[in-house]
Amino acid sequence: MSDSLVIIPTYNEKENIEKIIRKVFSLPDPFDILIVDDGSPDGTAAIVKSLQEEFPNMLYIEERKSKLGLGTAYIHGFKWALKRDYEYIFEMDADFSHNPDDLLRLRDSCQHEADMAIGSRYIKGVNVVNWPMNRVLMSYFASAYVRLITRIKIKDATAGFVCYRRKVLETISLDKIRFVGYAFQIEMKFTAIQYGFNVVEIPIIFTDRTAGVSKMSTRIFREAFLGVIHMKMNSLFRNYKS
Questions:
Q1: Which stretch of 6-20, 42-56, 163-177, 201-215 has the lowest confidence by average pLDDT?
Q2: Which residue in 60, 78, 126, 220 has the most C-beta neighbors within 10 A?
Q3: Is position 104 within any domain?
Q4: Is the CB of residue 149 less than 8 Å from the CB of residue 229?
Q5: What angle do CA 71, 119, 223 make, to 5 degrees?
Q6: Cβ–Cβ contacts within 10 Å for residue 122, how many?
């Protein structure tokens, strides 16, 4: 078993799932993969199960009955990982918007200085490929808004390409994480910083998916817009001593 686990939530990713699994397993250093599938009707889970025979004790799947939200999928995966001996636990999308080669860079950061390493689209300008301008602006200014309200210095607060050292997820009260959409990403970063962990951004190039359908929507950003204010206010009354 590797000391590193890549958690990939899926919903209707049959076009991407085998390719992303094979790419991760082709890296020069070993990574295990946990797929958390939310009842994909397109057969994503069946593809993963067929690959488990080829990659025993490396590829795992947890199936949920319905689409329950990105945040709950990751929380499910985090709890699964903490029951095992993984030291480095990753979030990554299935659609190749995150380059699997960058897993090595994120883990290297956590092996040397970071408790949480973020693959950042905005640490060196705007490194986004094939996104429409309205979506680039929405994402960029969402992070600026988070910085304004929370006073954290993270440039890419909504980033979903992350490496955690085990101790971060052991310290955060996962059952108290309240957001289920992309605001979940903001809450995890904010909470880690409140606990005093060293959160580092690593520049990446984000490439929009070429297969499958995006799950992003304006509703997700509305959740984040209002939720950030509540999160900041609630933090004033919470004890973050670990």
A1: 201-215
A2: 78
A3: yes
A4: yes
A5: 35
A6: 22
Tens-place pLDDT, residues 98-141: 999 999 999 999 999 999 999 999 887 676 776 677 777 777 78
Q: Phi first, then psi: what are they for 185, rounded to 5°?
A: -65, -40
Angle (nearest 5°) at CA 72 between 141 and 191: 55
Counted domains in the chain: 1
pLDDT score recorded for residue 212:
47
> Is 240 inside any structural domain?
no
How confident is the model at residue 216, as a pLDDT? 54
In a domain, residue 22? The reply is: yes
CB 132 within 8 A of CB 170: no
Q: Average pLDDT, stretch 34-55?
A: 97
> Residue 156 sits in which domain range?
4-235
User: Minimal CA–CA distance to 179: which of 82, 79, 73, 34?
Assistant: 73
Q: Where is pLDDT greater, at 189 or 209?
A: 189
Task: Compute, in degrees rounded to 10, the torsion defined by CA atoms 10, 13, 14, 15.
Answer: -150
